[in-house]
Amino acid sequence: MKILSLEFENLNSLKGRWKLDFTQSPFAENGLFAITGPTGAGKTTILDAICLALFHRTPRLKSIAKGNNELMTRGTGECFAELEFEVQGKTYRSNFHQKRARGKHDGALQTPTCEFADADTDKVLETMLTKKTKLVEQVTGLDFSRFTKSIMLSQGEFAAFLNANANDRAELLEELTGTEVYSLISERIYDHFKSSEESLNHLKAKAEGVSLLSEEQIQALTAERETLEVEQKRLAEQLKEWQAHLSWWKDVTKAEQTIAASEHDLKTAQDELDRNQPSLERLANSEPAEKLRPMHKDLKRCEQEINTTRAHLDNSTKLLAVRDAEKQDAQTKLTQSSAIVELVKTEQQDQEKIIDLVRPLDNQIVVLKDKQTAAVNAANTLNEQHTQQRNQQVVLVQETDALKQQDQLCTEYLNTHQADQHLEKYLGQWQAKVEQVRTLERQHSEQLNSAKQALCAVGAQQTIIRSAKEAKATQDKTLAELVLVESSAKQQWEALQGNTSEQVLNAQKDLLEFWNRNTHSLLEINRGFLNAQQQMHAKTQAHQTNTQLVDKLSKEREVLVERYKERETSLERLTRLIDQEGELAKYRAALESGSECPLCGSTEHSIEQSQDIANLVAQKDRENLELTAIKKEGQDHRQQLDSLAPMIAALNDDIQRAQADIQQAQLNWQGVVGKLQQSLSDFVGMAPELALLTINDLGNEATVATFAQQCELQLSQSAQQLKALGDAKAHYAEAEKQRLSVSVMAGKAQSNLELAEQRLADLNKQNQVANEQVTQIAQAKEQQWNALKESIVQTAIEAPELEHIDDWFTAKSQASSTWQQTKQQQADIEKQLITQNAELKTLDDKLSSVEKELATLTKESESLVSELTRVTAERTELFGDKDIQATSNAMKQKVTEAVSAFDAAQLVLNRSELEHRTEQTKHTGFSDELVSKQSSYTQASNAWLEALKTSPFEDEVNFEAALLDEEVRTQLQSLKKSLDESIVSAQARLNTAKTTKVELQNHENAKAWQEQNQQQVEEATTECQNAQQSHATKIGAISANLETDNQNRSNQQYLFKQIDEQQVEFDDISRLNSLIGSKNGDKFRKFAQGLTLENLVYLANKQLQRLHGRYELKRKADDGLELQVLDTWQGDVMRDTKTLSGGESFLVSLALALALSDLVSYKTSIDSLFLDEGFGTLDSDTLDIALNALDNLNASGKMIGVISHVEALKERVPVQLKVTKHSGLGVSEMEKQYKVVT
């Protein structure tokens, strides 16, 4: 990763917008540069801006969000940071931006915004805060922690790894290199080991609890099952005979019951017919009137239509007169509208002639007014210019006088303070020397504190030794107590086991679980058995009902067929008779009074005595209607029979399925009960106290439910007992583990005591060295301060005391700045005086020119006013003050309205003529329709009177009295049909039942079957069924035992195979667990961290070779993550890292920091490095060594930025990024070339 450019705004003390382009000069030619400036100027802020642009946080501020931003410069309304960097040849741009409300410095902080983009294509890749940081980590391969330890070594964390203890160093290694995954691997391996061990033990216990039948037992059970199957077949044949005998008795009983019920129904139907005879006679009397009803209805309809048409004709006559009057009125209005149109058009032509004369005058008036307005505006503008120039002249005169006074004041100040002009030259040198004195003072203070701390550390170490001794005694005491706890837990575990092993309890639990699973099957079988019985009973009843209905419908249909044939024969006879009467009517028409008949020769022709053909036709119609009714009724019966046939077939299928379900449930029940009994007989050990179900319990829902509840209860008790035993075992294991853990801790306590005593000796030695260094630094500080005071006195300035030096520098810096500012101010004033004198001369010339232009414009304006007055008077005389366009538009509107009125009158006339013609047509139509209706009425009346004469009714009143209401007639017809059907149906059932009884009595086995009554047959059938069910239960139990034995044999082979496979897996995971597995993941994690530390030490030693060949880092052999230093100048003595001096610690820390940078950058090449460290603890030689090392790193292609205020470093590094602090303002700035001008 290489940083290309950084741009930021308003961060900490660096107010304003700044940009550093590391691809341009001077950074492009010099990859090593220094960021310099006084303390608090804002050097580290540049590194904060880099972190903010990438990760939205800094090493010093962990969170920058909507409600918290301590990084934004005080008194500003926004802050911004943007970084461009290169990773693997691609350039990216990342920024962070936050504003305050309304851009005001006191506004509320708003939600930050961000952007991560491809800088080559400007394609935005992410804008969400959380997702952007993850994308940065993905692209760079560095999270915030790795970034601050590989690219940017932030202030205060430079020597963090060197000074960390073992635990903190482990956390740092895990955080930097991601070794937390090894902890997870170690935990997973341990969990896998425990799981594999439990699975293996469970399989072994399961294999020990399985028993098999012997060969003799299998042969005996097989022979017994074959015997029972033969006996079962014999019982099935015998049961079939008894069921046929019982069915015969049931059919006889049913036939006798049907005969009695049918005789009763027949008598009831006959009585109901007699009771309703008067109503039926009324129905018969209404038949002649019903035949005349259509003709009478037609006559009434004709009367109604004549009345309606006559009313329409009268209304049309009145409306026709109204339409004629409207037509005349419309003609008159049209004539008036035509005259008005002609008058308005003439008036419009006269007006247009006048407008043609007025329009040129109006145009001339507009032109004159525009010219006059322009002249007035120009004069006003010149007047304003004249006034402004006069005012400017006055202001310039006043400003010139003021500048002359300021110039005089500046001259007096500069003459009075001539000595201040040289302060700028010496202040920087004096401040650098003071900084050196203060550095020595800080070193003196630090060494003095170190000496005090060393003395305190000696006392503290003595306290630690006492504590270590107390800790060892405490650990020994705790170990003794835990031995007793372990013994107690072991005794409790053994007491819970008692005489029953855990394997036996598991076997009992498995048996109860087997029973519980099969009990659920028995519940389902029992429910299926009860449902099948209910279905069979319901389907059998429905089958009997539908069969009876089929018999009834079949008998009724036979009766209907006979009636249909009789009516069909009668209809044919009537048809022939009517045809004959028609032929005879022709001959009767040819007879003449007194002439002989060609058939009989008689001269007297009694035509009235001939048969009435109308009565024959009416009789034929009645026969047709009755034939149609019989046919429809027969078809209804046929449809009912057709629909009943599939229903009966379906019911037969349902009954057979229910019987099959019952038999299957019995077989399933026998099989499952047999399995339960066999599992009990095969169980080795103390079986559960629970009575098993038997074959006879099928159908007894309460017994099955009780067994299921007891089984669940005992299973729960068994599980609780096993859990208690497991808890006790776990408690014992935990006690043993705690005892071992405390034993290890006791050993560590002894070790800690020995280390503390060795540490005390080292601290005493360090205390002596620190006291010597305090004296040396105090002497050096005094020499530096005396040299500085002598330098100040030589400039004729009184030297201040060291404690007041900052105030003295501030005052002198202000005096120097004031002198320089005054000098610059005087030069600026002299320039302004020259400029203002020139401006005064220019203003005088402009004033003269404006006054001449004003006189010319005044004359021109007066001429325009005179001409405008004349033209306006002429226009008023012709047209007044009327507007041409408005007057013309009004006249056009008047013409338009007159034409519109004429067009409307024309439309009204046209509509009136159309309505008059339409109404005339309607009137003619109604007249024609009335004539037609009257003709139809005459025909209908004649036909009605003719039919009434031939009917049995004297007049229309008698006819209407004979008519029945349609609803009453329908009810009576339904009653007659119902009574007839009841009688026929009852008679048919009676005949069928008697026939059935005779057939049953004539059965070939009837005499033999009558020797035993129905009750005896039922008892024999039940006894045979019970015997068959008993045999089936025994067969099911034997089959279940044999099947269970086969399953156990098969399962046992598979079980042994599973045990072998599980043993192989357990051996593998056990070996792996012994190497790297642990419950908390420590074993493998520490191993991986040790390897990482080895690599880090190797990389750090390579850096130390470049920095200083004297030192080499080593790992302590007796402590996994502790470090020590090999000093080759002292005979390869091993030194603890805590004994290193400040300069030595810096060199080793720098080497470790550079090594960490190389280690963390395993995913990304690190081409930029920033060091935020003072280098103040190094002497000149060591500083040269460190800078040479940085030069070497720079030569390898890395860009390196160093933050420091050490003078020697400033001299060695040619490229410097200076940060200057403004005294008293709280803000700083960099050189102007880096400022962004907006």
Automatic annotation (TrEMBL):
Protein name per Swiss-Prot or TrEMBL: Nuclease sbcCD subunit C
Coiled-coil positions: 218-272, 613-668, 746-783, 833-867, 1000-1030
Family matches, as InterPro entries: P-loop_NTPase, Rad50/SbcC_AAA
A GO term for molecular function: ATP hydrolysis activity
Chain ranges of the Rad50/SbcC-type AAA domain: 5-238
SUPFAM superfamilies, sorted: P-loop containing nucleoside triphosphate hydrolases
Alphabetic keyword roster: Coiled coil
GO biological processes: double-strand break repair
Source lineage: Bacteria, Pseudomonadati, Pseudomonadota, Gammaproteobacteria, Vibrionales
Keyword Coiled coil: yes
